[in-house]
């Protein structure tokens, strides 16, 4: 069973979040809505089944997960894991905010690194052998690790990573070529060097790169590099980047050197701050995707933007918090509690 390495991360609680395939509408008004296409009709994209698979259970919350082969690596805030179908409190095994299971059978695996605080983000190296962790913790496997660290996918033992953060890490992403680890959050320093809420680490030499945009407040929640490696996008609750809020409000696109692209990324969707955030950004050959929530802003849902101009190609304003988005060919999957599409 082949699955993308990273899928629908940030699922908060299965009972509260719906996962669905959405059809995005053009950003500009349409003359009339076409008749709905019957399910299974010719031309309808194939989607994954909604059939439930056996899934290991935890006694807390999962904030992020990554799939490597047939193994799901899940992180968050929890202290025990139990087999699929087992009632709460029964057949539990201790875990320290990280666990793994087989995606086909639900079997709980022995992989069990431990931290002394919440893990917010996980990302896999290009070869799948190393897993990068970021969060609120200060120890990893009982050794000092300031909010970011690495472990082996095979056994959960620590792997070298030359990074430490002075504040919360909320986002991790590996570049398409596997050479760069992007780090986002609420920190102001990485390795005692000034980095305002976003940074990049060269995985070959374990050194910070010169990528150093200045995110003015709040936090970065998600990062992605363009498929062709030409740009980097971030999403979060930040209200401006280097003093600019258009673009730079909740979502921003940068050149590889960290220069902000002066485009239309924040012209239509404008929501950030204490009660709004772009929760997820993803990329494919067609563009940049984003999922957001907003109590007082202009948009809740998923959208696709042009990497260069920042213009919105499509959007689904579904009036419900949207936590994640995954483009998969002709289908876009969203994790949300949308209620008015």
List keywords for this structure.
mainly beta; Methylamine Dehydrogenase, Chain H; 0% helix; disordered N terminus
What does this structure look like?
By secondary structure, the protein is mainly beta. The chain has a single domain (57-336), classed as YVTN repeat-like/Quinoprotein amine dehydrogenase (Methylamine Dehydrogenase, Chain H, 7 Propeller). It is built from no helices and 29 strands. Strands 2-27-26-25-24 form a 5-stranded antiparallel β-sheet, with no helix packed on it. The two termini are 31 Å apart.
Strand content: 35-45%
Give the H and E element order.
EEEEEEEEEEEEEEEEEEEEEEEEEEEEE
> Can you summarize the main beta sheet?
5 strands, antiparallel
Proper CATH architecture = 7 Propeller
Number of domains as seen in the coordinates: 1
Strand order of the largest sheet: 2-27-26-25-24
Q: What would the CATH topology be? A: Methylamine Dehydrogenase, Chain H
InterPro entries: Quinoprotein_ADH-like_sf, WD40/YVTN_repeat-like_dom_sf
Keywords: Signal
Signal peptide: 1-32
């Amino acid at each position: 069973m082949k699955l993308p390495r990273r899928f629908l991360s940030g699922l908060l609680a299965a009972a509260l979040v719906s996962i669905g395939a959405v059809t995005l509408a053009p950003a500009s008004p349409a003359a009339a809505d076409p008749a709905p296409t019957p399910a299974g009709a010719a031309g309808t994209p194939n989607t994954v089944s909604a059939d439930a698979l056996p899934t290991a259970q935890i006694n807390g919350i999962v904030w992020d997960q990554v799939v490597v082969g047939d193994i799901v690596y899940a992180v968050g805030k929890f202290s025990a894991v139990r087999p699929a179908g087992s009632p709460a409190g029964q057949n539990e095994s201790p875990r320290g905010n990280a666990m793994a299971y087989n995606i086909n059978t639900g079997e709980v695996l022995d992989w069990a690194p431990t931290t002394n605080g919440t893990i917010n983000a996980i990302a896999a190296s290009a070869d799948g052998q190393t897993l990068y962790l970021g969060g609120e913790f200060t120890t990893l496997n009982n050794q000092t690790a300031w909010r970011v660290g690495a472990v082996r996918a095979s056994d959960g033992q620590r792997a070298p990573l030359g990074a430490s953060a002075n504040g919360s890490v909320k986002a991790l992403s590996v570049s398409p070529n596997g050479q760069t680890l992007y780090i986002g959050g609420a920190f102001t320093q990485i390795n005692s060097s000034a980095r305002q809420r976003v940074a990049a680490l060269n995985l070959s030499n374990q050194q910070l790169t010169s990528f150093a945009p200045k995110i003015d407040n709040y936090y970065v929640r998600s990062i992605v590099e363009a498929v062709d490696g030409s740009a980097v996008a971030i999403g979060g609750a930040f209200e401006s980047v280097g003093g600019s809020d258009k673009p730079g409000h909740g979502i921003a696109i940068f050149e590889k050197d960290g220069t902000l692209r002066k485009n239309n990324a924040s012209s239509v969707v404008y929501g950030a701050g204490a009660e709004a955030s772009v929760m997820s950004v993803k990329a494919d050959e067609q563009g940049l995707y984003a999922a957001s929530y907003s109590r007082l802003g202009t948009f809740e849902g998923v959208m696709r933007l042009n990497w260069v101009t920042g213009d919105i190609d499509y959007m689904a304003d579904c009036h419900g918090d949207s936590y994640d988005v995954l483009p998969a060919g002709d289908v876009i999957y969203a994790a949300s509690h949308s209620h008015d599409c």
